[in-house]
UniProtKB/TrEMBL annotation:
InterPro entries: AKR, AKR5G, Aldo/ket_reductase_CS, NAD(P)_OxRdtase_dom_sf, NADP_OxRdtase_dom. Belongs to the aldo/keto reductase family. Residues 26-266 form the NADP-dependent oxidoreductase domain. Keywords: NADP, Oxidoreductase. This is Oxidoreductase YtbE.
């Protein structure tokens, strides 16, 4: 059970990844994303999640470089995730996309590289490219995002490397229990994007009641719940106060009754796209 902001989970290849990270989806390239990332690292975050499709890798790279220097850190202290976008999937194009991301981030290596969505007919070739850069030591771990069980089963029939991470939409109204258990059985770490349901879940009355009990915010309750069900979580924010607040979840523990009550909020409701009905 993580008890500190910098606590890590050990992935299936031995690499250690922080349980909590900052997501930068929709953070504007330039000052906005630079400020958000630097604020997070100042607070104590050590994991930053971006993607080619977010169009802010350069700002993320700049912020990491500045934060390392300003906080007396080293590159090894920061865990950086990025992803290959759908239009670049395929073997050769993914290799190109990886080098582009590496260059924009201005890094010598990436900690975790993900396939952003399971593009039919392409994700297996994309995975071969990820295996290549992994074996070459350019990335410490490789994984997928938005893969359902049948996508993973298909990928694993040919994969030489089992994905280390599967990053999916996961929150109290989309408690993907079967997917969570499948990934766990395969040694794949589940990671939550949109853990707060695009901010909509913080208005839920039952979550407000649980929050009052612990003297926390609904957002903090949800993020703590993620960790207690064994899911890495990466709430996004560009607000310095909320970035700090989201990290203040290591001084309490939800009891079994409240864990069950949060799980019971499940409606199989998505705020983002469905991987099986995504227009690639």
């Amino acid at each position: 059970m993580p008890n500190h902001l910098q606590d890590t989970v050990t992935l299936n290849n031995g690499v250690k990844m922080p349980w909590l990270g900052l997501g930068v989806y929709k953070a504007q390239e330039g000052d906005e994303v630079v400020r958000a990332v630097k604020s997070a690292i100042q607070v104590g975050y050590r994991s930053i999640d971006t993607a080619a499709a977010y169009h802010n890798e350069e700002g993320v790279g700049q912020a990491i470089a500045e934060a390392i220097q300003e906080n007396g850190l080293s590159r090894e202290d920061i865990f950086v995730t990025t992803k290959v976008w759908n239009t670049m999937q395929g073997y050769e194009t993914t290799l190109e996309a990886f080098e582009t991301s590496l260059s924009k981030l201005n890094l010598d290596y990436i900690d975790l590289y993900l396939i952003h969505w399971p593009v039919g007919g392409k994700y297996k070739d994309t995975w071969r490219a990820l295996e290549k850069v992994y074996k070459e030591g350019k990335v410490r771990a490789i994984g997928v995002s938005n893969f359902n069980i049948h996508h993973l089963e298909d990928l694993l029939t040919d994969a030489e490397v089992v994905p280390a991470v599967n990053q999916v939409e996961f929150h109290p109204q989309l408690f993907q229990k079967e997917l969570l258990e499948y990934n766990h059985d395969k040694g794949i770490q589940l990671e939550a994007w949109s853990p707060l349901g695009q901010g909509k879940l913080i208005e839920d009355e039952s979550l407000k009641a649980i929050a009052a009990k612990y003297g926390k915010t609904p957002a903090q309750i949800i993020l703590r719940w993620d960790l207690q069900v064994g899911v890495i979580t990466i709430p996004k924010s560009v607000n310095e106060h909320r970035i700090a607040q989201n990290a203040d979840i290591f001084d309490f523990q939800l009891d079994g009754e409240d864990m069950a009550a949060i799980e019971a909020l499940n409606q199989n409701k998505r705020f983002g796209s469905d991987p099986d009905n995504f227009i690639f």
